[in-house]
Amino acid sequence: MSVFTPVTLEMLGPWLSRYAVGRAVTLEGIEAGVQNSNFFLTTTLARYVLTLFETLPRAALPFYLHLMAHLARHGLPVPAPIADRDNEYLGTLADRPAVLVMRLSGRSDMAPDTQRCARIGAMLAGLHLAGLSYGRRQAHPRGATWRRETAEAVAPFLPAAERTLLVAEMAFQHGLDLEALPQGIIHADLFRDNVLWDGDHIGGIIDFYFAGLDALLFDVAVTVNDWCTTPEGGLDPARTAALLAAYHAERPFAPVERAAWPAILRAAALRFWLSRAADFHLPRPGEMVLVKDPGEYRHLLERRIADADRLPALP
Would you say residue 252 has pLDDT above 80? Predict the structure, then answer.
């Protein structure tokens, strides 16, 4: 959530008049993240988050906005989009597609214990189950096709050893049939900084703009790789077991998912190595841009390959 397109209170006033949310009081750019321009907005009535979309095509955005509205209706703590006076979620500000959503309570925990890992496992299963009744369909934008195309784009910039690793892993992943696994709408980016804790409870799940239709197990692997990894890159047995058991209690894993688990953990690590490598080697200009270290997820991929026979199994 970087700021690529600056917005001022003066620019915001006329746009905000289309909403029944009061007048703008403060507007603060959000530095964390790498895809869209985001701002904390306080009005005379409440607190919101304003997002300007920098790369997503306008035609793709209703999928995400209606997904968040759908999940909110199912009682899940997600940022419900705010409709304007014409009952539309999506507007235009500074020549960018723009949306206003409710700002949720809480803050991220970057060192979650086993209890919080269990809670997020259960919440992820709840998101997956609620998503099964969502009528719109859109492919996961960072799915297998994107990974193949991005690998080709970043490979020329990598040192020889990293390029060799990438070529070998892409060949391995080519033999993995993700479509044979249970499918559904996935969050696809459920990192610790995308979860807000309000005391011991989850106050919010944010940043749905990578969501799409894909293997549900891929979403579990993305989450485990972030929430349960040790500083050395391995998986913490207690946190991993807690997250997987809580998820399994809500949506039991299928036998085909158990067989694919080690490979899916690798696919999830590969996805974030590629996206961070692309951000590093092929950056976009921005006023406030956070580029994360691609080496972290390259090392994670290497560990998942090395630990293939010792990884915590699915319940």
Answer: yes
- Close Cβ partners of 197 (under 8 Å, ≥ 6 residues apart): 106, 107, 108, 109, 116, 203
User: Domain extents for the chain?
Assistant: 9-102, 114-306
Res 141 pLDDT > 70: yes
Exposure on the CB side of residue 29, measured as CA atoms within 13 A: 17
- Cα maximum dimension of the chain: 59
CATH 3.20.20.70 is the classification of domain 114-306: no
pLDDT recorded at residue 287: 47
pLDDT tens per residue across span 19-67: 999 999 999 998 765 678 999 999 999 999 999 999 899 999 999 999 9
| CATH code of domain 9-102 | 3.30.200.20
Cα dist from 91 to 16, 43, 82, 263, whole Å: 10, 18, 11, 41
Task: Say how far apart CA 55 and CA 138 lie, in whole Å.
Answer: 16
- Match 């409440």 to its residue by tokens: 46
**309 dihedral zone (left: phi>0; alpha: psi -120 to 50; beta):** alpha
